[in-house]
Specification:
By secondary structure, the protein is an alpha/beta fold. The chain is built from 5 helices and 5 strands, in the order βαβαβαβααβ.
Amino acid sequence: MYSHILVTVAYEAAKDAAPSLEIAKALLTPGGQITLMHVMEPAPVFALNYLPEGWREEMRDAIEADMSHMAEGLSGAASVVSEGDAAHEILEHARAQRVDCIVIASHRPGTQGLLLGSTASKVVARAQCAVHVARRPPAR
């Protein structure tokens, strides 16, 4: 059982935070804390000229509202939105906040994932705490 669990939340197609949140609730010590975290990665430079003014702030506000909704009903839950490289931000937050378990979702890697690595594999390799990888079943 863990007293402070960090649950990563990705806003991408086919990624649902509910399974990771259920895992965190099952692993949490009574009275412990769950923190939901999303990392906004930088937009590609070529796309910046095509995005409307204020798009980043609007996106951040929407993500914060959604994560607050996810945290409802969880005693002592918190949420955080960070910006930068996802693996680095997750690992730094976990270290600074003394998280003792990270729950992160991962798809089965394809060739690209094997060559480039994924956020989950970087977190697993570098975390200073336990990491629970929630594997998504293959599409049928």
